[in-house]
Amino acid sequence: MNFAKAAALFALSAAAVSAQVNIGEQKPEPSLPFNITPVADFKLPWRIAFLPDGRMLVTEKSGPLWLVTQTGEKTQVSNTPAVYFQGQNGMHAVYLSPTYAKDQRIYLTYAEPGDYGGGLALARAKLVITPTSAALENYEVLWRQMPKGKGGQEGAAIAFTKDGKYLFLAVGDRQRMTPAQDPDQPVGKILRLTLDGKPAPGNPEYGKVGAETISLIDPPRDTELAKTAKVVSTYTFPTPNMTRAETWAMGVRTPYGLALSPTGELWEVEHGPQGGDELNLIEKGKNYGWPLVSYGKNYNNTPIPSHDTRPEFTKPVLYWVPVIAPGNLMFYTGKKTFPQWDGNGFVSGLGSQSLVRIIFDGKGGAKPAERWKIGFRVRDVEEAPDGSLWMVEDANPGKLVHVTPK
Question: Up-side HSE of residue 241: CA atoms within 13 Å toward CB?
């Protein structure tokens, strides 16, 4: 056998070994091992966050935030921000701060209105609850996407670090594609920020500077400025490059799910185009390839090179063809209600109307377990303090349901 043939066979063998696992063809289980009990209805509910006493905060995509009891009693939270509600944009997620027990702070992510559309915003406020009301106080926007504009796929998921000092913010590509590979544009990125929304020390390009150039012009008074202005002098000065300083990883598309595993790994789920939904292990400085590679294809049916053709990009650990359209990702840590699932991950499914359980090995690996057909578009699944699960339906009206063992 000549050298060329041997090299070719070796390359094919290596490609086969490194091929990722497609779990898109996984069949749903014949029955559900849990009961699903509807509790309340909302208009396009998006995310759930549990208070320590078991009550919930629930966001609606059109803007409202609700305080909800486990029996379905709802109180609208006042002083919430205006949102850009159109297409995939609107109010997104709510999270309790790691310091909630001390200061009652919560975090919100949403599309902030602006010129020609909106932009992702990260905000923080104090949640004040009385026997008859709930309100936000000391509201502050910590981070905002600039420039604003059209396009959905904002991502908007948060994951706090184990030490409670930093947060990861998932920023989608806003359907703009190419800027996901531009290190200077805050789209298609996983950011790592302080709790105040500033670049976090230890980021790959933290502390580095860029350059900004300004020009001074001399407009003659008796002529039209736009045609005759002359540059008198130009100055270039260093300036912090905020997007580069904030970025932890890049090249993601629609990162709706972001969560730290019990062993401290950061995991993300995102929508692919036609095919190619991904479960990614997010690591410092890695590039996940969108829109240059995918296991799916464009909506106009033009092909996209596979991850297998570009080794410089990090492959997903698992992917789905056909898609499940993931809504979120969470890790279950209950010891009593569903003890057999302790440490496992759950991915909600929109188009697939499913709930998927995934087993993580704590070493960067994952494998599928069950896939259950729920019967509605599952936007979010979360764990209550008692270990039971709760889900919201992506619909108007959309159900809030309680999941308990059979």
Answer: 16
Tokens found for residue 287:
């590039």
The per-residue pLDDT for range 85-117, each reduced to its tens digit, is 999 999 999 999 999 999 999 999 999 999 888
Long-range pairs for 231-236 at CB < 8 Å and ≥24 separation? 236/211, 236/212
- How does DSSP assign 283-337, residue by residue? -TT-B--TTT--SSB-TTS-B---GGG-TTSPPPSEEESS---EEEEEE---SSS
Q: Using CA atoms, how far apart are residues 15 and 3, in angstroms rounded to an integer? A: 18
Of 114, 120, 118, 124, the C-alpha closest to 94 is 124
Is the whole model's pTM more than 0.85, yes or no? yes
Instruction: Identify whether the C-beta of residue 61 lies closer than 8 Å to the C-beta of residue 108.
Output: no
Q: Which of 178, 172, 130 is nearest to 155 (CA)?
A: 172
Topology given in CATH for the domain delimited by 23-205+241-405? Neuraminidase (2.120.10)
Domain ranges within the chain, ordered by starting residue: 23-205+241-405, 212-240
